[in-house]
Amino acid sequence: MDRTPSRWERLAPLTGLVFAVAFIVIFFIGSDTPDNDDKTSKWVDFYSKHDTREIAVSIAATIAMVFFVWFAGTLRARLRAAEGSPGRLSNTMFGGAILFAVGALLFIALDFAAADTVGDVPPQVTQTIGVLDNELFFPLIAGTSLFMLAAGLCVLRAGSLPRWLAWIAVVAGVVALTPVGFFAFLLSIVWVGVVSVLTYLRPATPAVDAAAPPPAAPPPPPAAPAV
After folding, report:
1. Is the peptide bond before 86 cis (omega within 30 degrees of 0)?
2. Contacts from 47-53 at CB under 8 Å and sequence distance 24+?
3. What is the pLDDT along the chain (227 residues), one digit of tens a residue?
4. Taking the model in full, what pTM does it have?
5. What span, in angstroms and rounded, lies between the C-alpha atoms of 62 and 100?
């Protein structure tokens, strides 16, 4: 029996738009950290001057990631309904989304730690945290690739979203594993924003789970008594 979605359920897809807008703003207001081979004094100087902004950006980015995971759960439900059992691609997409979030939060946590402790720890510690912030990108790369590639393949196979969005996701998922993977990460943010709006404007029609047993046939009418 179909159930009318609540107001909050109807608004759930827009969590992706909140995430996308927040991360685009953060990308433009954030500052580039020093290069790995810069002197220790440059690292300390950077975080001493921008500590308040980096802490605020870290907190905002963490909140944005909460919205992203919520959106991923909403998208997983939509793709799972279209894909049917066992939901291999939609489940892989959600697993990639979790890895994406963990990878992003790793960057966020390191940036926060450097900004929050600058001046309280030896300069070399600040530099070390900063270098780690520059280098620990593999979880984010893997998460971006799995999230986008699985989502794109799922849409190509089962529908539920425009095919052009699926092809963009597939390309981004492959590019994420190349030396220019950072651009795939940026593209994935925009993709999430577009998909968020489309899924809000075009709610999925309820689908019957392929694993559910068919309704039982009504019992035959009783036989007429013999004369």
Report:
1. yes
2. 47/114, 47/115, 47/118, 47/126, 47/130, 48/118, 48/119, 50/115, 51/115, 51/116, 51/118, 52/115, 53/29
3. 445 567 777 888 899 999 999 988 988 887 788 889 889 999 999 999 999 999 999 999 999 999 999 999 999 999 998 888 898 999 999 999 999 999 999 999 999 999 999 999 999 999 999 999 999 889 999 999 999 999 999 999 988 889 999 999 999 999 999 998 889 999 999 999 999 999 888 876 544 444 445 555 556 666 555 54
4. 0.82
5. 13
